[in-house]
Design goal:
heterodimer; A: two-stranded antiparallel sheet; B: eight-stranded mixed β-sheet; five-stranded mixed β-sheet; 12 helices; globular; binds thiamine diphosphate; binds iron/sulfur cluster
């Protein structure tokens, strides 16, 4: 019998601390696969952020460091400028990347830093217990929008990818989701392409991944996965947001 | 090398480059802009080096964090309000044991304050400033030459103890032109620090972290930092003294205030007053043993600072009731003159019946 699938070597043999049905574990696995397939493990450094994924280094067998909440892209910038041969990525949630770290995000992208960002958008603050995120949908219930997010009081969900796409330094941004096997495969391809942009020295690349947070959405895992396709993608449509590489795919 | 005439901010820049500083990240704020500009001129297009005018002090200090992760010598600089923003990053640097040099050419505050020189950031610099139980080495130069020498030393100390090192200067030091001799040649190339993160080539992967849900891990980190701080206290305390041998009153001052105090003390000596100077060069660790030793002879300590009394707490702790302290300070960016300090010295001197 031919083996079609196996555990990526770069994924440590540990049990994830994430909740059942959480998107982070799938994305970790995809990252491990891509890094292994692209043979980057000897020259890659990951910067993870405050948020549920703060312990990402417990699972990925590569050099990793932690940044202060929101500062991942500044840390990645410093590392990359000091050591341009190193492949550097940040792994950030929506609270981290689009609230406290907005300035770092905008300016890192605008400078066209040769880094790659994995932006996990689950529309809430997971780690701190389900408060509103900048990406929380209108009418969505969170612990700090107990009456549902109201645009007049809490503003609109920020479309970070579209916003960053306007900036000159941005080369490639795609929005994907991990709500179905097809979309998971697309996400992997997109991560691969984002790393290729960095390897080619073209500029800033980012993959925004819509991911479920069943616990804080107060849904069963399956229901949460369906909610991504039904509700989230209305505000955050999937697809390539910006691509000036001139190449269709990394492969 | 012959002496060159330079402003203090540029002196730091040149000394840093000669110490092998490859990366500088900063955000403009007066009175330290000449340093940022110096680095833009000398690092931004140099091979293997990097300069970024960051979007904020927060970003700059976190870029420092990243470059230090990569194992190179890195520096940032700012002035008081900007230093407040850097505290988050300094706490993380301390926790992750990442060497780095951070310059504060301080100004008068609180708030936005004035761009004129002040020493009101002493507490912030020596007490940690950010959250958590950490220390940074703090060096306080008082002249252009000391700026050059201490900048070099700052990089060495940072690497030796894997600790952020602060240089606490002020607006006068930063802007004043003085002849300076650079005693070191820039290294051709420094080796990458052995614990750098650049990818796990030929070794197991590494993690640089601060977050732990394990309280005993956290305690162990704090203990290990504490042990290093004790070692620094044993090895690295530096201070200058001036005419202390027969002094009955000691003026304690740091940085530019110490320079002003020297003038006042010369004047006092010319008038027959037995007054000397103790100038702490490392503000942390503080030269407490030296204060104690001096108290064996001199009973009176006049602490003169350009703030409302911050270092005086360290002097009093060191004296532990042994000598009597007086304080003279002016906050708000006003620069006291040597004759003003001389008058204060004389008043206390005669009031204590020392003549
Ligand atoms: C300066 C600072 N403020 C607040 C926090 C608390 N905090 C930790 S994670 C987090 C939000 C994380 O949300 P997100 O980035 O969306 O990641 P998720 O947990 O959803 O994966 C916050 C506010 C912190 N660690 N640091
Ligand atoms: S709280 Fe949400 S983001 Fe955090 S682990 Fe659980 S499901 Fe994942």
């Amino acid at each position: 019998m031919t083996k079609v699938y196996s555990r990526p070597k770069l994924l440590k043999k540990k049990i994830f601390h994430y909740c059942a049905g959480c998107g982070h574990s799938i994305i970790h696995r995809l990252l491990a696969e891509v890094i292994e397939e692209m043979n980057l493990q000897e020259r890659i450094v990951g910067i993870n952020s405050a948020g549920c994924s703060v312990f990402a280094y417990d699972y990925l067998d590569i050099d990793m460091a932690e940044a202060a909440h929101g500062r991942g892209m500044a840390v990645a910038t410093g590392l990359k400028r000091a050591s341009p041969e190193t492949i550097v990525f940040t792994y950030q949630g929506d609270g981290d990347l689009a609230a406290i770290g907005t300035a770092e995000t905008v300016h890192t992208a605008n400078r066209g830093e040769r880094i790659t960002t994995i932006f996990v958008n689950n529309a809430v603050y997971g780690m701190t217990g389900g408060q509103m995120a900048p990406t929380t949908l209108l009418a969505q219930l969170t612990t700090t929008t107990p009456y549902g997010r109201d645009a007049r009081l809490e503003g609109h969900p920020i479309r970070v990818s579209e916003m960053l796409a306007l900036l000159g330094g941005v080369v490639y941004i795609e929005r994907t989701a991990v709500d179905s096997p097809t979309n998971i495969r697309k996400t992997k391809k997109s991560i691969r392409k984002a790393f290729q942009v960095q390897i080619d020295g073209l500029g800033f690349s980012m993959v925004e991944i819509l991911a479920p947070c069943p616990i804080n959405w107060k849904m069963e895992p399956l229901e949460a996965w369906q909610w991504i396709g039904k509700e989230m993608t209305k505000v955050f449509p999937l697809g390539v947001i910006k691509d000036i590489t001139g190449q269709k795919d990394a492969d | 090398m012959a002496k060159v005439l330079m402003d203090g901010n540029s002196v730091i820049g040149e000394a840093a480059i000669r110490a092998g500083c490859q990366c500088y990240f900063g955000y403009p704020i007066t009175p330290q802009n000449e340093l940022t500009e110096y680095m833009a001129n000398h690092l931004s297009r140099k091979k293997g080096c990097a300069f970024i005018q960051a979007e904020s002090e927060l970003a700059a200090i976190n870029m420092v964090f990243g470059a230090s992760l990569a194992g190179v010598r890195v520096m940032t600089s700012s002035s008081s309000p900007g230093m407040s923003l850097k505290q988050e990053g300094i706490s993380y640097l301390a926790s992750c044991e990442l060497p780095s040099v951070i310059v504060n050419m301080s100004r008068g505050g609180p708030g936005l304050g004035t761009i004129s020189a002040s020493q009101s950031d002493y507490f912030q610099a020596t007490r940690g400033g950010g959250h958590g139980d950490y220390r940074t080495i703090v060096l306080a130069p008082s002249s252009g030459q000391e700026l050059a020498d201490l900048t070099h030393r700052a990089f060495d100390l940072a690497d030796k103890y894997r600790i952020p090192v602060l240089i606490l200067g002020d607006g006068i030091l930063g802007q004043m032109m003085e002849p300076v001799e650079f005693k070191h040649e820039a290294p051709a190339e420094l080796p990458v620090r052995s614990n750098a993160l650049r990818g796990a080539k030929g070794r197991a992967s590494r993690i640089v972290r601060t977050c732990t849900s394990n309280t005993s891990d956290m305690e162990e980190l704090n203990w290990s930092l504490y042990r290093r701080y004790q070692l620094i206290k044993e090895e690295e305390i530096t201070c200058e003294t001036f005419l202390v041998e027969d002094a009955e009153m000691i003026v304690v001052s740091f940085g530019i205030a110490a320079r002003i105090a020297r003038g006042a003390i010369k004047n006092a000596r010319a008038n027959g007053l037995k007054v000397g100077l103790l100038q702490p060069v490392t503000l942390w660790p503080f030269p407490s043993a030296k204060v104690e030793e001096l108290a064996n002879r001199a009973k009176y300590f006049l602490v003169f600072e350009m703030n409302m009394g911050q270092m005086i707490e360290d002097v009093q702790l060191a004296l532990n009731g042994k000598g009597e302290t007086f304080f003279y300070g002016r906050p708000g960016g006003v620069i006291p003159t040597p004759s003003e300090v001389f008058r204060v010295i004389s008043r206390h001197y005669y009031q204590k019946g020392l003549s």
